[in-house]
Amino acid sequence: MRVLKVNKENTKNILSDLLKRSPNNYDQYAGTVQGILDEIKEKGDEALFAYTEKFDKCKLTKDTIQVTEEEIKAAYEKVDDSLVEVIRKSLVNIREYHEKQKRNSWFDAKPDGTILGQKMTALASVGVYVPGGKAAYPSSVLMNIVPAKVAGVEKIVMVTPPNKDGEVTPATLVAANEAGATHIYKVGGAQAIGALAYGTESIEKVDKIVGPGNIYVALAKKAVYGHVSIDSIAGPSEILVLADDTANPHYVAADLLSQAEHDELASAILVTTSKTLGEKVQEEIEGYLKKLSRAEIIEKSLENFGYILEAETLDEALEVVNAIASEHLEIVTANPFEVMTKVRNAGAIFIGEYSSEPLGDYFAGPNHVLPTNGTAKFFSPLNVDDFVKKSSIIYYSKDALKAIHNDIETFAKAEGLTAHANSIAVRFEEEE
């Protein structure tokens, strides 16, 4: 990990370095992705099956594309009972947390004859993309499906790539079934995003697409945005630990590596007011690398996007924290709750030495689908609001409109929109 002093120039360079990982910088693949989407839109199932055979070496038909009840039952037999139990415990926490995010429609009636309000309506259908193979994460299945279910979405369609034998990762199927997916299809990649966005003979179009994927999936989601809604264009994982001399370097090092092991583009940053802590964390990392299974990936991640940033004061450290706006932020300081109040930009905030990042990934309840690449400055974690839409409600009685109709007409005429003004005026033309 590179050790740097906190200053404006170094912060600027780090931000520039981190932004290189954004999917928006991989437009060389955009043409390929658009070609796949266009073909799915034009040829439907024919293209969907062809691309599945090409990329996943699996031959599908309209009779085999959808996961059956028998396949789901078989998946339970292949997954350890202990994991099924943990999935169910995690589901309880995730559901309870998201239940607290629900909002009701509201109406405000006034004595002057006006009623204003907001009507909350769940989306009718949502598509959830789930990676397959070695990148199968049943925890992400729960995080993407549960808030949609809590919001009241009736149709939750999950897509995930099959292996060459037409099988889906068993743990993924179990998680989807427990969380409440209504349909599961054996397709992945940009072609699956196209099917969800445009519809084919086998897969109906959805209103919104959520879930992580590789660069082709990310670019496909970007391309179909506007035709359907999406959650975000997710970038590589990242963690920032803000620590002072009270922090345990053994714990801090472990937490940094928990994200560095994702892939070579993952970012792990320690911002500290203690030079001694930084040195001890470096030593701890060397020790961990001798025994962790993904040490090679971790080493490349730390070499590319690993930093130890030394700040003179906690306020200076917080400036860097807010500038980076990390996906995951751990606060391990003498007064972590007080420090938390000064954090403006972070996807998820973990407070204290026993609130390590994997707690949020798997079990605590808050969603682990978080804004990356600095987008925590203006985006929020995936939540129930992402699966509802809001309609404004407006009612005016005749007397209420009469009291203000001249104001509306004046405004409309000022914009040169005489038909707008007339729409109001005709209701009172016999009275004028």
Automatic annotation (TrEMBL):
A GO molecular function held by the record: NAD binding
InterPro entries listed in its UniProt record: Ald_DH/histidinol_DH, Histidinol_DH_CS, Histidinol_DH_monofunct, Hstdl_DH
Pfam families associated with the record: Histidinol_dh
Enzyme Commission number, as recorded: 1.1.1.23
SUPFAM superfamilies xrefs: ALDH-like (SSF53720)
Cofactor note: Binds 1 zinc ion per subunit.
Reaction catalysis annotation: L-histidinol + 2 NAD(+) + H2O = L-histidine + 2 NADH + 3 H(+)
Binding site for NAD(+): 129, 191, 214
Necessary cofactors: Zn(2+)
EC category: oxidoreductase
Keywords of this entry: Amino-acid biosynthesis, Histidine biosynthesis, Metal-binding, NAD, Oxidoreductase, Zinc
Residue positions binding substrate: 237, 259, 262, 328, 361, 415, 420
The protein's annotated pathway: Amino-acid biosynthesis; L-histidine biosynthesis; L-histidine from 5-phospho-alpha-D-ribose 1-diphosphate: step 9/9
Similarity annotation: Belongs to the histidinol dehydrogenase family.
Listed name of the protein: Histidinol dehydrogenase
